[in-house]
Amino acid sequence: MDKPVHKLFLLDAMALIYRAHFAFIKAPRITSKGLNTSAVFGFTNTLLEVLQKEKPTHLGVAFDTSAPTFRHVQFEAYKAQRQEQPEDITVAIPLVKRLLKAMCIPILELDGYEADDVIGTIAKEASREGFEVFMMTPDKDYGQLVEEHVYMYKPAFLGNSAEKLGVPEILAKWQIKRIDQVIDMLGLMGDAVDNIPGIPGVGEKTAQKLIEQYDTIENLITHADEIKGKLGEKIRENFDKAILSKQLATIDCQVPVPFDAEDLTMCGPNVDLVVELFDELEFKTLKQRVLGISATGQLSPVIARPGAPAKEKKGQLDLFGNPTEEVGKQPAIISEGIADDDAPEQAYEDLKIPTTRRKIDNTFHRYHTVDTPELMKSLAYYLGLQDAFCFDTETTSLDTIDAELVGLSFSYLAGEAFYIPVPADREKALEIVEHFRAVFENENIEKIGQNIKYDLLVLKNYGIEVHGKMSDTMLAHYLLEPDKRHGMDILAASYLNYEPVSITTLIGKKGVKQGTMRDVAIPEITQYAGEDADITFQLNEIFSKELPKVNASKLFYQVEMPLLKVLASMESTGVRLDINALREMSGVLEIDLRQTESEIYEAAGQSFNISSPKQLGEVLFEKMKLIEKPKKTKTGQYATGEDILSDLEANHVIARKILDYRELQKLKSTYVDALPLLVNRGTGRIHTSYNQAVAATGRLSSTNPNLQNIPIRTIRGREIRKAFVPDTDDFQILSADYSQIELRIMAAFSGDTSMTEAFNQGRDIHATTASKVFGVPLEEVTSDMRRKSKMVNFGIIYGISAFGLSQRLGIPRGEASEIIRAYFEEFPAVKGYMDRIVNNAREKEFVETILGRRRYLPDINSRNQTNRGYAERNAINAPIQGSAADMIKVAMINIHDWMAAEKLKSRMILQVHDELVFDAHRDEIDLLKERVDELMRNAIPMAVRMETGIGVGANWLEAH
DNA sequence: GCGACACC
DNA sequence: GGTGTCGC
């Protein structure tokens, strides 16, 4: 029994249109209105002919798109010769598409791919599924795609009848042994039509001889010196052109087009539309013919699906049987005539979670190595045409200051990326980077990246200042899901169902044995780096649509993105550290530490490791039995925290000494000894790294080292700040901090009149609070009352609980409750605000800051009291802490912009949540004081007056 | 991973 | 309430 034969015809629209146009060039068909219809006419004839004669069961017509492709990129060097597309053809294309839509014939096109790529991909897949495939084109390049069940179909032309070419015919035609040699032939001969250069002077005959003898271009090149005479010379001179030509001639059969036989059927022509078009084009005989065809039903039973409903696109499978993810996120793949014009766009969230995770091996991609000056120029040219591109740097180190560039990757189209290897030699590296300077510095091209600040800093070390709008996927996700993690691997998994190549498979596990990116072979690193850029590009497509949905676009593009550049600049500037001062301190601390240590041993009657909480607990509570019922931590150890030891101070001298020991130890190990090691050898300065995407409230954090927790509370601790010094004698340290920023925001949000008044009149807020809470006149407030009120004020911001306050103040729970009760009685608006925001959060399950930065609090409706309480405190604290963060971020951007515009010598060097620190040139100090104060106070207008305190000094301590 | 402690 | 680092 014969299986019914499925005959698939794939038409190369562009080639057929061109051929038709030139066929009639001497006697073009012109309508009465002057429209040249040669191309449409020729195409239509061919189409109808194939429908009638071949009766395909399935068909599709492929078009090129105007989006640039890599082949264009490679082409660029040769493109000069290419002629402009004739206007008649430009006009013909939409008419042909209209015809196809009217006939309900599937149109195949995909941005970034040419018709031959699309046809090649579908042809191979269809043949695997049992189709007989005919690729209808006059273009000889298609020979390379022919295989069992896949044929070239050359349409009838100028008296020649149509030709079907299978494998034997192609081999005979080219006089080659294998089909894959078609591209070697094309690579050698070149192809004038497609602007493939080939080797000059090599035509079909020579190419045949060479391929017969050497089999492939690659092998020919390795034996090029064996070839004598002019030919050998030509080959040796132009081998790169031959390789490039071979690449150019190769049709890509890995296009992300899902093959679905049902997509390649006709849904039934709309005769009215066809007739209307033919009337317009004045195709009289064709009109008769098409009416005849449809009237006799010759057309519809063959390939039509009469009355078949428009197929819904969801749940489509890709070539590998995996659901095509994020329908509507990728470029439209198949526009199936009219039927598909209104295919539903599906939101990401609605998709079922597929069970198989996509990886590089089972996902379409084109990652190219770009390693010649010509290709780099071409790529740069094409990057220059984009509105936006994604880029990523591969380096030898995570530390931006001494990271050496290993490579650059770019992507501006989902699924495609380019990797440029950069050599270790700095001169050569600079030469390569130079190709991309113009696109990086182009103000009008948006730059997309994952943690782009890192890449900006790396490029800065190669003299490139990246300009233009930024879009950082890490920060976008930070605004979308501030509590989640924002690593690329996690984002790829949750938004693209994709698992990127892990870095460990390339350079090994973390540790001394871990290699660097420099050691990875170029093909592997191309895949890895290309994937990074590609995935980031795709994530950005999703996030840029998600951000407006949560009203975060403004915050993203006007705060976080500009801030990223400010932070990059601060990090790269760094802070000067007085290492000698720290060395001296280290010596003193060491002596005191040894002294304290021996005193502790003496008091304890034994020596032990004081730094081990476990040993310390055993000594204090088992041997010395300082407390009857010692507290334990959740892991069962004795608790020896500061609060507990403080309580013991009265009992035994050892407690005080242990606290002293701890302080000295902390200062020495965390600051005095650690900081000098982090001074960069090159700059002689210390370069912290600001993380813009960790604190769920919107604050920054600082690492390597953390310069946001340099001691200030104790006398000995704050000495460390003396080591933070200005650049030269011409500079001083200037520090500007917001006074009570969070309490002021609380006052503004709650609208509490007495609190607002206190601020607006410049009164001592803690003393004022004390006078109200304890019911005494302001002048009778004691220092203890003020201290307690200060704690209450802090507690309010943190979403107070009586328990928390009693802990902080070291007072009984009852007393704490009483203070809170009194507080809320005096500041009823504050209580009202707290209740309001919690209720609001219960309903929406998120809270937001003044700039709309959200924090999601699903636990606010939890039945678990602990979790719910935590969420409630967050509901109160996050908008306040976060709004303060918003405010200083805006201030930083404005200050940075102003300083740049004024071309000041001074630099902003540190941010510590409510404080900005500057390395201030002496000539600019007065100006800075005035403008920084103004820009900080007015960053975001509020109902409550903002105030700053500004100080200047020879070091950070003196500046306070 | 935890406890302790530095900062806002 | 939010962080990061140290030493065990």
From TrEMBL:
CDD domains noted in UniProt: DNA_pol_A_pol_I_C, DNA_polA_I_Ecoli_like_exo, H3TH_53EXO, PIN_53EXO
Chain ranges of the 3'-5' exonuclease domain: 367-548
Entry's EC annotation: 2.7.7.7
Limits of the DNA-directed DNA polymerase family A palm domain: 717-924
Gene Ontology biological process: DNA-templated DNA replication; double-strand break repair
InterPro entries according to UniProt: 3'-5'_exonuclease_dom, 5-3_exonucl_a-hlix_arch_N, 5-3_exonuclease, 5-3_exonuclease_C_sf, DNA-dir_DNA_pol_A_CS, DNA-dir_DNA_pol_A_palm_dom, DNA/RNA_pol_sf, DNA_polI_H3TH
Superkingdom as given in the UniProt entry: Bacteria
Gene3D superfamilies xrefs: 3.30.70.370, 5' to 3' exonuclease, C-terminal subdomain, 5'-nuclease, Ribonuclease H-like superfamily/Ribonuclease H, Taq DNA Polymerase, Chain T, domain 4
Any GO molecular function: 5'-3' exonuclease activity
Segments forming domain 5'-3' exonuclease: 6-267
Keyword vocabulary terms for this entry: DNA damage, DNA repair, DNA replication, DNA-binding, DNA-directed DNA polymerase, Exonuclease, Hydrolase, Nuclease, Nucleotidyltransferase, Transferase
Reactions accelerated catalytically: DNA(n) + a 2'-deoxyribonucleoside 5'-triphosphate = DNA(n+1) + diphosphate
Enzyme class at the top of the EC tree: transferase
Pfam families linked: 5_3_exonuc, 5_3_exonuc_N, DNA_pol_A, DNA_pol_A_exo1
Family: Belongs to the DNA polymerase type-A family.
Physiological role: In addition to polymerase activity, this DNA polymerase exhibits 3'-5' and 5'-3' exonuclease activity.
Protein name: DNA polymerase I
